[in-house]
Amino acid sequence: MPKGYWVSVYRTISDPEKLAAYNKLARLAVEAGGGRTFVRGGRIEAHDAGIAERTVLVEFDSFEQAVAARESAAYQEALAALSDGVERDFRIVEGID
């Protein structure tokens, strides 16, 4: 069964305090949903129309599990804490396994 992934690229971070509050809650929601964070920040080399900003990659055992974790009450609480503190591109994608 193909794995599922959350891929986030932060275009702007306008409120670091909201992002910090989100990070604490999101980490717990991801772990509860069975996710494993492989990338969170770090070095970036962007090409073409890429954005050299904070990038996050989280792996789940399935696409369905990734969607369910995004829809969970725990993650919704994290999103409420984040509110308008960032502008980001957030996607859930299916792996090719």
What would you note in describing this structure?
It contains three helices and four strands. With 97 residues, the chain is of the alpha+beta class. Strands 2-3-1-4 form a four-stranded antiparallel sheet, with helices on one face. The chain is globular, with a radius of gyration of 13 Å.
Radius of gyration: 13 Å
Number of DSSP strands? 4
What integer is the average pLDDT? 96
Distance between the termini: 7 Å
Overview in brief:
37% of the residues lie in helices and 31% in strands.
Which descriptors would you attach to this protein?
97 residues; 4-stranded antiparallel beta sheet; globular
What is the element layout, followed by pairings?
Blueprint: E1 4-13, H1 16-32, E2 36-40, E3 55-60, H2 63-71, H3 73-82, E4 86-94
